[in-house]
Amino acid sequence: MSTVNSNKKSYNETEIVNYYTDFNAAGLFHYEEILIEKYFKTEGRTLDIGCGAGRVTIPLYERGYQITGMDYAEKMIAAAKAVNGAIDYRVGNILSAPFEDQEFDNVIFSFNGLMLLESYEERLSAVKEVCRLLKDDGKFIFTTPYLDNKVKKSYWSEKAETLGIDTGNMSWEQQLELGDEQLEDYGSEFYLHVPFISEVEQMLEEAGMELLFSARRLDYSGIEKMEDELDDNYLWVTTCKK
After folding, report:
1. Cβ atoms within 10 A of the Cβ of 71, count?
2. Dist CA 107 CA 119 (whole Å)
């Protein structure tokens, strides 16, 4: 089974669906509120990719955004509709989104969701697809974990040694290999890629995206109420080069 199918299977598991349904209570994270207020058009159309049970979708809907939530896990979408049936939810995959060109003013892919895609090529394709969906001045907000300040820590140095990787002199392929992780949560297995910042920057450049803002989350917005659920991640805001 490919990692995408494995992740999709996990996100359809009852315990994981219940976790994300309960997690709706967290609402928007503080950094999301700041970035959304600064970069998103309230009157525009908004797409929430990997919406889960609606943690981001619901508060944006309540704030007047014309929002669509999309997730590839059918049971997540069913749970989201059960919470609020008035919101436009779709089952769909960002690798081939069921929308027209330039349909959205705002796109968000929260909770490191982009890094759940199994290869650099798929992550690049996803960003290109976001660019297809965005209007000329549309904005894309997403988050990633990042390896730059972790690579010397014991877990990563031991992993690099096991893989035969010299972290002081890595090839592009070795950077990608080092960042690939297989995780377990609530008895379900997940794939997650932890990139270097330069990798994300290169991906955006290849996808035809212009970087408007990036920062370490903790430097930008500080500790969150739900900090135990988060990692030391990075914030990104982009628009398409036209």
Report:
1. 30
2. 21
Query: Tokens representing 216?
Result: 């370490």
Task: Evaluate the CA torsion angle 42, 47, 49, 55 in order and state its sign.
Answer: positive
Q: What is the pTM of this model?
A: 0.96
The residues, any chain, with a CB within 8 Å of residue 16's CB and separated by 6 or more, are 10, 185, 186, 188
Q: Are 109 and 94 in contact (CB under 8 A)?
A: yes
CATH number of 3-146+194-240: 3.40.50.150
Could you write out the DSSP letters of every residue in 13-27?
SHHHHHHHHHHGGG-
pLDDT digits (tens, 9 = 90+) for 110-168: 999 999 999 999 999 999 999 999 999 999 999 999 999 999 999 999 999 999 999 99
DSSP-derived 3-state class of residue 223:
coil
C-alpha 13/C-alpha 170 separation (Å) is: 37
Mean pLDDT of the chain: 95
- Which residues lie closer than 8 Å to 70 by C-beta, 6 or more apart? 47, 48, 49, 50, 51, 89, 90, 91, 92, 94, 97
Cα 108 to Cα 40: distance, rounded to the nearest angstrom:
10
Q: What is the pLDDT of residues 44-96, one digit of tens each?
A: 999 999 999 999 999 999 999 999 999 999 999 999 999 999 999 999 999 99
- Which residues, 6+ apart, have CB-to-CB distance to 172 below 8 Å? none
> What would the two tokens of residue 167 be?
């972290």
Q: What percent of the chain shows pLDDT beyond 70?
A: 98
Distance CA 45, CA 22 (A): 26
